[in-house]
Amino acid sequence: MVKIRNLKKSYKGFPVLRGLCMDINNGDVYGFLGRNGCGKTTTMNIICDIIPKDEGEITLGDSPESKVTIGYLPESPMIFGYMTAREYLEYIAACNEYEGDIKKRTNEVLDIIGLTNSADRRTKGFSRGMTQRLGIGAAIFRNPDLLIFDEPTSALDPQGRMEVVDIINRLKDMGRTIVLSTHILSDVERVANRIGIINGGFLAEEGDLKDILKKYGGDVISLSVRNLTQENKIALLKVDFARAEYNDQTGIFRFGADNAEDAAKRLMKLLADNEMIVDSFQIGTATLEEVFKKVVE
Fold it and tell me: What is the pTM of this model?
């Protein structure tokens, strides 16, 4: 769907993008990650043809001749407060010269974004989450080939975030291609199948989320002990793992290992030998937050 090669962009002589290369496949939910100011929004604005690039090539679709439509959700969508949600979507339809049945499509979009029951309320009374969902509705109205969401869950409470994540999952099930940029990495883990991490103006890592979690984190064992002593704590942290850490606030040990089965056997033997009482013992993979820190550090 999107192929970027050697993309460069500078502002007043300061290079933001230094040769970015990315590949977004049809049907991907692509988590586009990076620190503040690293060039994520610049990249998305260039894809949308909002700002010009300095150098590089961007191909949308299978070839330069392909006509790919884009729906864009900015971080803070501007909604006319005097309009109802229904009126606003009808306004978006008019702006896009929508040729289909506007009433039918409006009702479809209201259902997707979960605002059917609030369709005729003035948007000035909407919560931040409702406004964000209406912004998504505007982005998806004409069934674009590519959706670009810039910080769709930022500044939302947990309920609002989950509502937006549910919408993205619903769009994913519909086969939509979505570029999702957000600092809330747990949300990316819930919806994305591929990620790209930008650092220093280049794409530092890209690939399937599961493969990247395995590559950087391997298997992870989480453990909590009821009768933990300082001596036992030291003994556990000295076990030969790729990494071992203890969180004083949660009381949880996390061990990184290439082979979870072998690591679990060694840990269980140590626990039994020292008569430690286990409250929890869980084997999983590294979190995206852990991977992100490793890539951009």
Answer: 0.79
